[in-house]
TrEMBL record:
Species: Aphis glycines
InterPro entries (alphabetical): Elongator_complex_protein_4, P-loop_NTPase
Similarity remark: Belongs to the ELP4 family.
Signal peptide: none
Name by which UniProt lists this protein: Elongator complex protein 4
Subcellular location: Cytoplasm; Nucleus
Keyword Nucleus: yes
GO biological process: tRNA wobble uridine modification
């Protein structure tokens, strides 16, 4: 019996129809959802396959951890293969705390009440981003409820690293483990397989002191990881605490990833509705022109059920609080 095997280069991946993905017309790339639709809108539709994204968190915030869980939960709903790597806590604990998807028949754009702005009338024409996926295709991306959890029996195709105490915690061992999964799991673009799927990789708390970096430093690890992911149907999401990295190393780390999202605490008391500020340090731009976001002032709003990204008019808040 003959098999219709698929072996594609990076330039041919766009013609594939993979579950839980969409093709960007402007980028000419295959995108997957981050699990937070408002964040997908900020990233021009989603995260490209074959890229490495870095999320930096300051002052022990929760945003990086929540984004990781949404990223994994989106993979579970989309039937993607998943690898969870974490050296500070058991990776199974992350999988057991995934937000549950909300089943909605349709999504409608939020009704926006017109307000008289004190700064300028043109602010009323700016778009407002919330957690409902009307900015992207309805079939792409899901909305999740953080107050409910995905049942453990529904977790499929999830691998954990380290799987047990016998495994080490070095960058070299993790890189070899990822290489084995990509090669033997049929995620490499160079190896023909009967059916393609997407691999989602999460690496939490990179550069933590618990990592064994005697055989390979973190910069070398990221350099080799990006090469490995670039020639595969995989996307890697990495989180780290910004305060444990010096400025020189941080610049080198950001150079060897494709996207950088930086979360900082919101310092303005007048912005009490938001729990953090989002700074876009870098966006994936290979094989395409660099995407320019509609705004540079973003903030995270966290409620009991959801996390969403919204536009914040800092100048307006400075005026209203009497700073200016």
């Amino acid at each position: 019996m003959s098999l219709n095997l698929q072996s594609h280069t990076i330039s041919q991946r766009k013609s594939l129809k993979l579950k839980g993905t969409k093709t960007s017309v402007t980028k000419n790339q295959i995108l997957i959802s981050s699990g937070i639709v408002s964040l997908d809108a900020v990233l021009d539709g989603g995260i490209p396959i074959g890229t490495v994204a870095l999320v930096e968190e300051e002052n022990y915030g929760r945003n990086a951890d929540l984004i990781t869980k949404h990223f994994i939960a989106e993979g579970v709903v989309s039937d993607h293969s998943i690898l969870i790597a974490d050296v500070e806590r058991k990776p199974e604990a992350t999988a057991n705390d995934l937000p549950k998807p909300i089943q909605e028949d349709s999504f409608q754009q939020t009704d926006i009440v017109a307000e008289d702005f004190k700064i300028a009338w043109r602010y009323s024409q700016n778009p407002i981003y919330d957690s409902k996926p009307y900015h992207t295709s309805i079939s792409f991306g899901h909305t999740f409820d953080m107050s409910a959890k995905i049942p453990v029996n529904e977790l499929q195709n999830i691998r954990y690293w380290p799987a047990d105490k016998s495994q080490g915690t070095s960058y070299a061992e993790l890189l070899e483990h990822i290489n084995t999964i990509i090669t033997k799991g049929g995620f490499s673009t160079k190896i023909p397989v009967e059916k393609r799927n997407v691999l989602r990789i999460t690496i939490s708390n990179l550069f933590s002191p618990i990592w064994d970096s005697n055989d390979m430093n973190v910069v070398t690890f990221l350099y080799k990881l990006r090469i490995l992911v670039r020639s595969s149907y995989a996307t890697c999401l990495i989180t780290t605490q910004a305060h444990v990295i010096d400025d020189v190393t941080k610049c080198r780390i950001e150079h060897f990833v494709d996207s950088v999202l930086i979360f900082k605490p919101m310092e303005l008391s007048s912005c009490a509705d938001y729990n953090g500020k989002l700074i876009i340090g870098k966006l994936a731009s290979f094989n395409t022109f660099l995407y320019e976001p509609l705004s540079v002032d973003w903030a995270t709003k966290l409620t009991r059920k959801k996390l969403c990204i919204e536009v914040v008019f800092i100048f307006y808040y400075l005026i209203s609080s009497g700073v200016l």
